[in-house]
Every structure is written in C-alpha cells, then in structure tokens.
Amino acid sequence: MFSIRIVRRPLCHLTMALLLSTICISLSWAGPDARALLKESESRHRTRTQLYAGELTVVNKEGKVRKKGWKSFREGYASDAKNLIRFIDPPEVKGVGFLSLARPGGQNPDQWLYLPSMKRERRIAAQDRDASFVGTDFNYEDMEEFDHEKYKVALKGEQHLDNIPCYVIEAIPVEKVGKSVYEKKILYLRKDNLYLFREDLYRKGEKEPAKRMVLADLQQVEGHWVARKMEMKDLKKGSTTTVLLKEIVFDRPQATGRFTLQNLNREGGD
Amino acid sequence: MKKRLELELRHSFLLVFLLFPLPALAQEFSGYAEAKGFAYAERWQGRDNWGLGWGTLFSKLEEKLDEVQLTASLRGEGISSDGEGALIFDPADREIRRSPFSLRDFWLRIPLGPTHDLQLGRFQLGWGKTDGYSPADAFLPRDLTDPFADEKIPLWSLRLSGSNGALRYEAVVAPVTTPWRLPVLGSRNAPLTTEVVPAGTVKEVESSPPVIGFAALRTLYTFGEWDLGAWGRAGVRPAPLLEFRFDQATAAPSGLLVPVERRYAREEAVGVELSRILGSFIVRGEAAALFSRDRDLGDAFIGSLSAERGFGDGTLLVTLAGNARETPVDASQLFDRAILPAVIIAWNRTEEWGEWKIVWSAGLKHGDGLLKSEAGYNLTDLWKVTVGYELPYGQADGPFGALHSARRVQVALRRSW
C-alpha cells in the first residue's frame, strides 16, 4: 500500500506539471486577449471627469478651411459616460449644445441637440446618428465614448504605425439593443500604454474604411495620458476635422445638474 | 426742443451700443450686420415698389455675473417701405409699426438651485418645432411686417423653470401684452378683399393693447424614447381681432375711408403633446383646446401630427395641423389659425458650403399655399450670402393665395462677429 502511494505521487506531480506546461504554452501562443486588453486600457485611462476647450478645424477636399470652437464636459467613462458639448465659435453655431447620456444594457445613448434659434432641444433619432455633427466630420455616433462591452472584439495581430507597435483589434457592434452606423471598427491600441492610436471605421456593406480617426500628440496631463490632437478623416469626402484639446482638466467635480436637459436649454449657459 | 434733444441723445446711445463692442463691459459680444434686397414679381395696386431694401445691425452682449447670466441685445434697422414705424422708444413692441430700434433681449437668469432657474426680463419663448405647427407655440406674438419671415417677438416675462429627474416644468408670467404686429393693412403683405372693404382704403386706428398679458405652465416628462407634455395658459391672446368700423367710414378722394380698430380677447387653453422615436422617425402629436367667450374668436380644438426623419445631414419634417371647430369669422383674420387646416413639408440640409431649406405649406381649405426656399453659402466663417424666394399661390380668398402680389426673390449678405 505504502509502495503504491510512493509510485502514485511522482506520477501525480508529473501529470500536474505536464498540464500546467500545456496551459502556459497555449497561453503564450494565443497572446493577450482583445477583451482583456480593452478592459485594461479602460482601467488605465478611466477618469471620473474631463473638461477641455476644443479648437476645431474642418478642411474640405478643396482645401477650404472652417474653424469652430467648443467646450466639452464629461462625467463617467464609456458605459456610464455623460457628455455635454457647447459651441462657442463661430457666431453661426455659437450656443449650439449637445447632450449625450449613456443608457444601460448596451443601448444607444440618449442624445439631444439644442439650437439657440429653436429655443428648445431636438432629440437625435437612430437615423440621425450618421448625420454630420454640426458641420464636422464627426457624426453623432462618433461623439459617443467607445464602450467595448457593446462590441464583439477579436485581436487581429500587431502592427507598427509611425514606428509605434500597436495591437490591432477588430470590434463588431453587437446590435441586440442599439444599432450602429458601422459594420466594424478596427482599433489600433499602442502596446506601450494601451492608448488608442487609430480607429478605422467601416460603414455597413463596405469593404474599405469610410473614416479614420487618429489620436496624436500624446501627453501626460495631471497623471493621465491624453491625446491633445484628434483627427477625423472622411476618406470618401476627402475632408478632415482636427480637434486640438486645450485647457484639459481631469477629475474635478462637475456642477450638479450640468448633464441635464434643463442645463442644455440654458441660453448662454455652459 | 428739449424733448427733441432727449430723443436724439437716446438714439445716439442706441447707436453707440450697436456699433461698438464695449469690451470693458462685455464678457462676450456678438452680432451681425446684414443687407437684404427683395425683388417682387409685381407692384401692388400701383403703390408698392418693385424692390425693397432692408438693412439690419444686431448686437448682443452676454455676461456672467458669478452664476447669474445677463444677456442684452439690440437691433437697429432700416426698411425702404412704410412698414417701418417712427423713431420712437418702444421697449415692449406695443406700437402698431416696428420701430427702427428694438430691444431683443434684456434678461437675467438667476439659478435657484442646480436644476431650477428664475429668468426675468425680455426674452423670446420657444414652445414648438421650427417649420412645423405647434398649438402650444402658435399663439405667441409674431411680427408680420415681413409676412414670410415668421419672426417671433420677445416678451417681457418672468419664467421659473427646472427639472426633477425626468420631469421638467416651466411657469411663465408675461405681465404685459405684446401684441402681434401686422403688416400695413391694404398693402401687398396684407391685402384686403373687396367683400370686407368694398372700395377705398382703411385707416388703422392706434389702439392701446391691454396691459395684462398671460400666464402659462408647461410640464414635460421624458421616459425612454417617449416625451409626454401637458400645458395650460390663461390671459389675453396677443393676436388682435380686427373691427372694421363701417359706421365711422368717411369719404375720401380715393373712396371710402374705413377705420379699423384692434381689440384683444381673453382666452384659456390646455394642451397635451406626445412624441417618441419610432424606428427612424420622431413622431410628435399635439392636441389643444382653446376657449374664449369672445363672439369673433370662439373656441378651437387644434391638433397637429408630425413626423421627422433624418437623411444624412438633412431633415425632413412633415406636419399636418387642423382646427376641428369652425371659426366665427374668416380664419385669415385670426392669424395663428389662419392657415388651418394645412400640411407643412420642410426639408433642410447642411452642406459643406452652407445649408439650404425648402418649405411647402399647403392650405387644405382654399387650395392655396406657399413655397419658400433659401440657400445660404458661407463665404468664410463670418461672411455669408443667402438667396431665396417666396412663392405664394392659389385662390385669393386663402391666406397664402391672398399674398399673390408678394411673390419675391431675395438676396442677403451678412457679416457676423
């Protein structure tokens, strides 16, 4: 009986060792998981609040330049994000406001646009989500925070962009609750800090990306990585909108009631 | 002499406000200068000109005094027609003709908490959808000096507004009546039919509108993709009722001269509104019951149904509106109810170069209508040129058809700052 136990224990250890080795080898072959990367990215870059002043430059394919300015307020992040944007320049769009409130369960966020000429808000319907956001190359869906929980994600490999190694992740919208303008998004996530470097946006039924967003001029502000330059290219129209982020502030308490329809409708308000 | 000097000093001050940004006082200063020209398809009874010029200078000052918002704006304009009134101080827009200077905004908004505000002063109310028809909004005073501009007149009022979760409310008291401003009666913008005035001209009698205005309460509840609202109001209806005093008619070289007086009726109204996202549409329905003991106004039951859909960077809005009650007098004399029943189709779109809009309003009672369109081209971020036309058509007894002689094209150049 004793001898049998002696024999069995090394066998048991050997089996365990083999099993662990197999798991480790399998893991090393599979590489990191896309979901885990996106979760880690969100965890690293999540901030409670963010405020900035944006300087927008819209250049159409003929090279005509239009400039706009907005102030952006955010509370929460991704799945619980609340956003308020108020245009401050030029006079024709001054006072235009945009409010986006995330909804639970992967539903599309509630979005409203306030036009000073109307003196009241207008709700953004699903159909409008592909409309240009106040004459820029962003549409209303682009104005949402990226929430990986609303996508089926898969790691497609690695690629160097501008000599920066990136993970390439395919994100396909899960449309059980909320519909998307896009069939898929290809995300390029920097390997060094898991910050989004580029996003290629594919409209439904199209094989080539319709738009491309590039985040550049990455800097540390108050301990958080932030891209000070955001560029959205409409590859079909040939136009580009560049947003320069200024006066960035993180994690400051937001005014109570800032993300409400009452505040959106305040003429001359923030 | 002293009075004249005071008047000149007052106008000089207004001009200074319009022309200079006063940077020492202003947190933000904006405005525009616009030159507009109209060319009409015909002259009206050989009197109104083929063309019309319209110059506007608008200045707005916005300042934050801690949490309190102060906004003031002033408009100065010159019109090459008799639609413009005398150079007088008319801060509540109660005069029969519009003054060359108009105070558009002069208000303070004082926060009473994070989600409750008190706003007082002179400001514009907006309770409806632009380019459609909303019974809640339609009664608010318009300036019809330009009958196609659909220009709202700001009101002296006190507004308490706020929200509690998904529930929003707005209580408004307008202590002074600001009446609708009508075009010159008998002009191409307000032609008089021969049944009402057999021959000759009318004489508009200056009549002081009642001092007391109206009070209104609106609530709106948002849940999911639904918005449900209810409102009520009581007080003086700002649209006048016209009284042709044939008993006081006098003979004039051109024929009879009939005095026209204006009076203002009291009216109570309640209404509901419901809207929701339905697939790719935003569908909106409104119903209102309006009650008045006035013999010429009577009661009304007005409903509207609209569907709005986005097409890329454009929006199509289709509205059907009607009044279930017969009006005691010709509806065209009731202004806010004149076009009912009607279908209004509005399509606007933003382009890289600017934007354009087409609105077709079809009166279902008289078979008349109005087709209007405009396109705005952004020369730069600050310069914009707009071209457009207004094409009323149909039977002359309809509110649109009556404006047949006012068919026109327009061009405008605006510089903003």
Q: Mind explaining what this structure looks like?
A:
- The complex is a heterodimer of chains A (270) and B (417).
- Chain A is α+β, with helices and mostly antiparallel strands.
- Chain A has a single domain, classed as Lipoprotein localisation LolA/LolB/LppX (outer membrane lipoprotein receptor (LolB), chain A).
- Chain A is built from 3 helices and 13 strands; from the N terminus they run H-H-E-E-E-E-E-E-E-E-E-E-E-E-E-H.
- Chain A has helices at residues 2-30, 34-45, 261-264; strands at residues 49-59, 65-75, 82-89, 97-101, 110-115, 120-123, 151-161, 164-173, 182-190, 196-203, 211-221, 224-234, 239-250.
- A 13-stranded antiparallel beta sheet of chain A has the order 6-5-4-3-2-1-13-12-11-10-9-8-7, covered by helices on one side.
- Chain B has helices at residues 2-19, 135-138, and strands spanning 28-40, 51-65, 68-79, 101-113, 116-123, 142-143, 151-152, 155-164, 167-174, 201-204, 214-223, 226-236, 241-244, 250-252, 255-263, 266-278, 281-291, 300-311, 314-323, 342-350, 354-363, 369-378, 383-393, 408-416.
- Chain B has a single domain, classed as Porin, CATH 2.40.160.100.
- Chain B has 417 residues and is mainly β.
- Chain B starts with a helix and ends with a strand.
- Residues 20-26 of chain B have low confidence and may be disordered.
- The chains are: A alpha+beta (270), B mainly beta (417).
- The interface between A and B is large, with 35 and 48 residues.
